């Protein structure tokens, strides 16, 4: 990894980005501009990356002199520039190589990810937007600046993308370079719990947080897939396009539309099995009543409705207890390719938690993932999907 760092207040996020990359096993070399060194000393990045930091002074004094940019470009698989200031964007777009970072960019031949950061007025200026469009047209991945409170105290688009968003872009770039089974495939992932309205203020729902489905979407994006996330919960810094729904019927409609040209459907959402037979206008008043009876009717089976030849379907079975035999039977009854089982009564795992313990069931066998973070569980699910797709492609090749 090459991480180019420019002089902007968002540089504090770059320190966290480098630490995050190191935790995920990336060997990272940081290149600082002269302006960046005024904000953060090279020693800080060296400690975070466990690697010497490159800058103009180092390049000039090192053996080989200015050829340092060639060596740095040869060693890396992916290059990130974060934060990318207006000055550096202009230089990159114009091909100016008057510092080590810009010279390395010109010499680098792999995927480049750019995360701009600056005042909102500077970011929205036609010159900056034109530079970003030009860099994107040349193959760079431009992560849009995020809207929020800026260092100047104003509100607007100018905040650098979060380190987690940049990490996801890095993983996706590597996956696309490697050409894995999910590259170019479309996945539809559902997340969260549906809400079925009773009246104008009440609803029937569940405790699903949407964390598992969102983690699967993030992992699939990192593996190079084109992902659509259909969810009932807000998603901060979404890794892919998001469709927000509320009811089971709305989710069914969204899934039907999104899967029309999809390769995989991952039904991680907790969809209500029943809904009120009638919606009460306004609010149901308590009055003198001691009980309230509401007639419920079955909702649409979203997973079944989406079934069609060529669509790989992944179901989830959240059981109240270690009823894995019931989950195995459910996989066969629903005729799905993969089923992810978890016990919602297991302490500290499952609904609402950041951790989970799952068993991935297929016709070919089972894979148990002991209690761990939902991101690790999501990675295991995505890898199982890849294996299934690879097996199908192999079988089709054999038939030909």
Could you characterize what this model shows?
With 400 residues, the protein is of the alpha/beta class. It folds into two domains: 2-171, Rossmann fold, CATH 3.40.50; 179-280 and 291-399, CoaB-like (Rossmann fold), CATH 3.40.50. The protein is 39% helix and 22% strand. The protein is built from 15 helices and 19 strands. It has helices spanning 11-23, 34-39, 42-49, 56-61, 68-75, 86-94, 100-107, 120-124, 126-137, 163-178, 211-222, 248-258, 302-305, 324-334, 374-399; strands spanning 2-5, 29-32, 79-84, 112-116, 141-142, 146-149, 155-159, 186-191, 196-197, 203-204, 226-231, 242-244, 264-267, 274-276, 296-298, 312-319, 338-343, 355-362, 365-373. The chain has an eight-stranded mixed β-sheet with strand order 12-11-8-13-16-17-18-19, with helices on both faces. A hairpin with a 5-residue loop joins strand 9 (196-197) and strand 10 (203-204). Helix 11 (211-222) packs across helix 15. 42% of the residues are buried.
